[in-house]
Design a protein that fits this description.
Two copies of one chain form a homodimer. Chain A has about 200 residues and is mostly helical. The first copy, chain A, is built from nine helices and no strands. The structure holds a DNA duplex (30 and 30 nucleotides).
DNA sequence: TCCTTCGCATACTGTCGGTATGTGAAAAGT
DNA sequence: ACTTTTCACATACCGACAGTATGCGAAGGA
């Protein structure tokens, strides 16, 4: 095993255990010694790969965000013949489903803004899934499907609505809640559409 | 000065300084010694009034939530002759404006869920302003102004949309952003209304 | 006036994020 | 082939901070 391979392997293992522990215990509930020992290394190795606890969390968060973003993009690509409107809908539904998963809930929705600050959190969100949302809205404004308006505030409203709905869904146990939340969100979207 | 007066005075002073520091530096950026010395007491006094740092933060958060809830209620009461629909709109606008203030932003929107957990945060939100929102939605469903549907997921969607919009507004500097965000939110509300 | 209560201070401990330094093996140079 | 350098990690340590145990002095009741 060459050195660069060993390095990557250790780094991946650290990220895997960090994500697992951050997701189950929350950022404040996990110590760096705990992450290191779960990985089978010491804290020295951790600080060789990451500059701080927040930095490690940031990389984990970026990874989670990227997965959610990929899920959204995959859902949109899955039906290439659909129009922009239906691509927005399927993308939003994919985002809602993905955000309900426990890792995403704790790391991205709860701890993310508090640990990294809202500005940095937003930058990661923008790079991962927010970008897709704004692009979709721009297309819809351009083709006249929704009112001419600045897309950034509208994107924030929709994103915040889905985030909060995902937090609520992850807490609730009734299976029908997902359908109810999606129906309500879909009604909201439909209300934006010019008849 | 009687003992009970002295106690209340110290407690209020602690809460005042804690709120100020939590709002400016964030929960993780403030130490209990810092709060105590800013108040002019020692950490012993702090632990005599609050069981933990999270407990102190929880009381501060409840106070902030109550202020926001009062602002929403006051805005609705300010125009008693308006119908339920316009009362919802003015309430939402009051919430959006109040949530943009720095204290509310940092304490209620960013640190709140991470420090207390989402369930407890939601309970405080429900008691303060979420209740008003759900009651308004129930009235609107009952009178047929919006579609028959479960109000809880819809309330979560609207609440999350406003929270995220408030975070975005507090970051941005253009004065027109508030108008844009409100216009977008108002369009969303209007879309829910049965013609 | 004595005793109890209690609001708060003082002094201490354990944990944890972060740093400084050591070490042995892999890679590079000659 | 031998030396030197690099580097991935371990070990040992420090400071900060949340939390605790205890002491004290004044208020309030008996």
């Amino acid at each position: 095993m060459t050195r660069i391979e060993q390095r990557e392997q250790t780094r991946r293992a650290l990220l895997r255990e960090a994500r697992r522990l951050f997701a189950t215990l929350g950022y404040g509930g996990v110590g760096l010694d705990q992450i290191a020992s779960a990985t089978g290394v010491t804290k020295g190795a951790l600080y060789h790969h990451f500059t701080s606890k927040a930095d490690l969390f940031g990389v984990v968060l970026a990874q989670v965000q990227a997965e959610v973003g990929d899920a959204v993009a995959a859902a949109a690509v899955a039906e290439p013949e659909a129009d922009h409107w239906d691509q927005l809908r399927t993308g939003c539904r994919a985002f809602l489903v993905a955000s309900t998963h426990p890792d995403v809930r704790q790391i991205m929705l709860i701890d993310g803004p508090a640990v990294l600050g809202w500005a940095q959190w937003r930058a990661l969100d923008e790079a991962a899934s927010g970008r897709h949302l704004e692009e979709a809205l721009i297309s819809l404004v351009a083709e006249g499907t929704i009112d001419q308006q600045p897309v950034t505030p509208l994107g924030r409203l929709l994103s915040g609505a889905m985030n909060e709905a995902a937090l609520w869904l992850a807490e609730s146990s009734r299976p029908s809640d997902l359908d109810d939340a999606w129906a309500a969100f879909d009604r909201m979207l439909e209300g934006l559409r010019i008849p």
